[in-house]
Predict the 3D structure of the following.
Amino acid sequence: MLVLVGGLSSCSSAVSINPSLPSDSASTSDVSQESSSGEFTNLEDAVYQQINQYRLSRNLPPLTLNDRISKQARLHSSAMATGQVPFSHQGFDQRIRAIAASIPYSSAAENVAYNQGHRDPAQQAVQGWLKSPGHRQNIEGEFDLTGIGISKNAQGEYYFTQIFIKRR
C-alpha cells in the first residue's frame, strides 16, 4: 500500500513567527523511537540519495540536506504517525515559519507519503512521488535545500515528509 497527498508548494516574501509550533516533545507513544538513528536515518538518507540521483538525471543541481528543515519534516511525520494530525499537509505554514526563523526563503514545497508492507519503503515513496505530476514538480523545482523526516507507527505504517526550500 502506498498513499500520496498532492504536492504542496508556496512562495513567500514575508514571514511571521508563530509561537504555537509543534514541540520537540510531542507525544510519540505509538511511534517507533528509532527516528534519530538506525532504520529511519538510513531511510532518510536513501530518500535523499534517490531524489538527488533523479535530479542529476534531469540535469538539475543536487539539493543540500539541512538539519533544521529535516527537524520540521520529522516532527510532521511523527505527528501524522501518532494521529495528532491527519495524513496531509496540515501545519505546512507553521513548519515553513519555523524554518524561516533561521533560513530566509523565497519559495517552499512539501511532499508527504505513507506506505506499509514494502521491502524498501523509501524507494516506494520516492517512486510514488515521481509518478505523481505534483510531487514530481516539487522534486524538479528550483529549490536548493531539503529536509526529510520519516516515522513509523505501531501498525508498521511509514510516514514520509520531504520539505523543499529555495533560499533568498
The chain has one domain: 2-9+31-167.
